[in-house]
Amino acid sequence: MAEHKIAIVDDHPLFRDALNQSLQSTFKSLETVEAGSMAELTELSSHDQNIDLVLLDLSMPGVQAFSGLLYLRAQYPQIPVAIVSAIDEPSTIRRAIDFGASGFVPKSQPVDQIRKAVEAVLAGEIWTPPGVDIENAGNSEDEELIVRLGKLTPQQVRVLMMLSEGLLNKQIAFELAVSEATIKAHVSAILQKLGVDSRTQAVIAINRVGPQDLQSNAAR
């Protein structure tokens, strides 16, 4: 039986394979599972909750800003999540930790640092890149919004993720196999918890606290 089980969630198969090989060479007994989207990870997690760590990319199908991290922390609070991303802005790292990530590993980090990060998080530590100051990287204006987002239930996070994709209530209801009335109730709860008046403002809110690189790409 494997000592650890790690889920690698990234929409680039080559990166997943490279990270998998790196981890396999580090740990004597390791089992890995892979997912290329949040939908795949959700399906995987519904059948297997013996995962010790999720390595999550911030940018992939079905994920907007920190929505994937928010969902995992709400749905599976017992499973640590470490972000592995091409984005390495100190403010993004700080926000990921604020949203409950147990670590943040820029993809630009050398392989040995990625291994150290995984070992640290599995040991219950919080890992951030050496030499990166995140203490002064926060934005006090967004702190209240971060707290509000953290109050969303797993299902509300999923609905917000789909709102961010531009889906209508009817489409979201179909995807989640619930009634349209249930989705309307979720949307109302989301607006109330975020302190906004419309679906558009809710999407803007989560984008506002998203990684700067993702915001720039979305604006193009």
**Largest sheet, described in full?**
5 strands, parallel
Shape estimate: globular
What oligomerization state is this entry in?
single chain
Number of strands: 5
**SS-based structural class?**
alpha/beta
> What is the chain-wise order of helices and strands?
EHEHEHEHEHHHHHHH
Low-confidence stretches: 213-220
Percentage of residues in strands: 5-15%
User: Order of strands across the widest beta sheet?
Assistant: 2-1-3-4-5
Mean pLDDT across residues: 85
- How many DSSP H or I helices? 11
Helix fraction by DSSP (H/I, runs of at least 4): 40-55%
Distance between the termini: 48 Å
Radius of gyration: 17 Å
Protein described:
By secondary structure, the chain is an alpha/beta fold. The chain has eleven helices and five strands; from the N terminus they run E-H-E-H-E-H-E-H-E-H-H-H-H-H-H-H. The protein has helices spanning 13-26, 38-47, 67-75, 90-98, 111-122, 140-149, 154-164, 169-176, 180-194, 199-208, 212-219; strands spanning 4-9, 30-35, 53-56, 81-85, 103-106. Helix 7 (154-164) packs across helix 10 and helix 9 packs across helix 10.
